[in-house]
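Aim 2, interim progress: modelling of the adenosine-5'-triphosphate-bound target.
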Amino acid sequence: MLKSLARGTEMFLTGPETGLMMQPALRINGVSHTFGTRTALDRVSLTVPAGSFTALLGLNGAGKTTLFSLVTRLYDSTSGQIEVFGFDVRREAPAALSRLGIVFQARTLDLDLTVRQSLLYHAALHGIGRRQAGVRAAEVLEKFTLVDRIDDKVRNLSGGQMRRLEIARALIHNPALLLLDEPTVGLDVEARQDLIGEVRRLVAEGRGILWATHLLDEIQMSDRLVVLHKGRVLSEGSVQEVLAQAGSPDLQVAFISLVNASGTKAAGQEAAE
Ligand SMILES: Nc1ncnc2c1ncn2[C@@H]1O[C@H](COP(=O)(O)OP(=O)(O)OP(=O)(O)O)[C@@H](O)[C@H]1O
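Predicted structure of the complex, ligand included:
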């Protein structure tokens, strides 16, 4: 499952570093964030175990993107603690950030580059030498069935192919944790199914996945689930545990029940009042 192939003096990794797997891929403890008077996250704690598919389920405005921005240090977290494989994102930023890949909700591709150029450029940003970058690019394109598009301009890809390229690019430095913020937005049913299947296969390689979504049908019974609502974690655990906490075997009913039970002022409401 976790393989490393030694070729001459170079090491090419096809799965994440094995030594990391004792630590959770992501541990968030007591993190809050405000925009002016608006509280976007209120003492959020959650864990993404190494090698797990963890769904972060929340409606619009739940705080999913804000959380991703804090993990990737786009925003600075001033309260609580965020660790990637035990490395604190503030105090040990290079060690933490080099072990995570991110796909943001909004597309961030340069349409004038070719697929190959996109990948090699990002590999260079991560300090990966040209030869190893070529090997990694071939690997990630294979995983996301884009090999035959390698010399096409990004602007000529379909929406689903662009998304797959973004994920391939996020894996170019072989991170053991991948964060995806509502990656299926704008994709048709078939492209959605293909994408989620390809990402689930990354779990089998030992990667931890945090998949933010508001779509219940993207969650499987074998997943870990975190329910985020108006900046607060309402439930966390296996899907079975979340259903048991909510008292319903149906995920939609359980979700609504958790939201209703969260009752009074959730984060973000204060400013609206
Ligand atoms: N830059 C900002 N300035 C002010 N408020 C913001 C900013 N970014 C987010 N917010 C607010 O913070 C809260 C959480 O927003 P966030 O975008 O993190 O939620 P989300 O779960 O990602 O929602 P969506 O699914 O719609 O993307 C919302 O109330 C939002 O209006």
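The two ends are 52 Å apart (CA to CA). The pocket of adenosine-5'-triphosphate is lined by residues 35, 38, 40, 58, 60-66, 105, 214, 268 (CB under 6 Å).
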